[in-house]
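Before the break, one more example. Copy the sequence into your notebook; we will annotate it together after we see the structure.
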Amino acid sequence: MPPVLDIDSLLESPLADLHALAGELDIEGYRLLRKPDLTIAILETRGAIADEIRPKVEAKAAELAALKAERERIRAEREEAEEAEREAAREQAARERRERSAQRGSTGDRQRGGRRPGGRGGERQARDRGDRQRPGERDQGARSQTSRGQSARGRDEGRKETSEKPQAPREPAVPISGVFEPGSGGGGRLRTDLSRRVRADADVQRGEVRKWRLHRGDVITGEARKVKRGRTDFQLVGITSVNGLNAEQRQAQKVRFAEAEAATPGDRFARKLFKHAPVQAGSRVVITGPTRAAASQMIAKLAEDLAGSGVTTALVLSVARPEGAHQASGAFDLIANEPGKSAEDALQPIELVLERAKRLAEGGGNAAVLIDGLDLLPADKASEILGTSRNLAAHGSLTVIGSAGAGSALEAQATTIAVVAGGRKLKLDKKASWSAGV
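Here is what the structure looks like once it is written out:
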């Protein structure tokens, strides 16, 4: 535990120590906070103002992250160099063994040359031995020599059959696509299911991560081969594209979501469904209403409308409901929380979906993430998720839409779309709905 509670000592302390300190300070939800946010929360208990210290904390966290990344890069390069040296040593040893084996074989041939039965001395010795042998002994010797010859041929044929025995065929490469999630050691995992990790995922080698400059949320298409070891059933053996870009285009791409220039919300989406409360590219939207107002049904309708208009759409159900799995039309991704899990357990899938949306926006695409039950998440996390929305100048956009109960504090942070309770059809409460675009 850090002896001094300042920004540097807290950020440089192990996360376990910060968790222990946060537990003593009764900070709620501290296990869900990132290290910079946890540092700010701890300093707030000592009278610090979050908005004033956040820039310093973020800057220090970025500095430490850069140092860690540089150490990882140096360690990876050192490991590669050591592995290359070991491989070169193994190849050199193998060459020396082959040369020694060849030398022994040629020396043995020269030594046997003078006693070879086909030589002159050998023929003379054989005739002399034959003259001294009796007829029966000569026949027995001939049979023995024939038997030895057959045995030698049998051994040769056996070795030939062994060498020609077909090796077990390698598993064929199969097409695969998914979202990249970094792992320890510089590699990562290709997630084929955004809700949870499954055996159908593929391990991504460190070399591919460096070659393609992969970041969390990158959408990868390529080929994988089935393996019988590791945390998954597959290993990525080749990448065709990342976020729809080939290798050359990927190298030329320099924009990063956090650093790109933000523009005002762009084109309007879902004009028919939300005529009076428009949804624009890069806007923040909260769908709300009283009990039985069917806000969940409205957000599912909106997901279908957005996906049908060419927007890459993902609907996250933060609270598992049996009927939720039937909401997917196939046009958008449905990420449902597992039964028995709390809403906070949906944070990790939500973060991965948001990272994928950022990568798509960097490449010029429009992405939308809809969260049913946004107000059930921790308040600071819900606000942070809404704040992710952005329309990137000269690039794409990320739109975040969430449902919340009437009177939620989230209404003041976004365009609010209120739904009228009751009735068979979905209706908007025009008086309760508002938007800066109206």
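The chain has a mean pLDDT of 80. Residues 50-113 form the longest helix (64 residues). Try to locate both features in your own notes.
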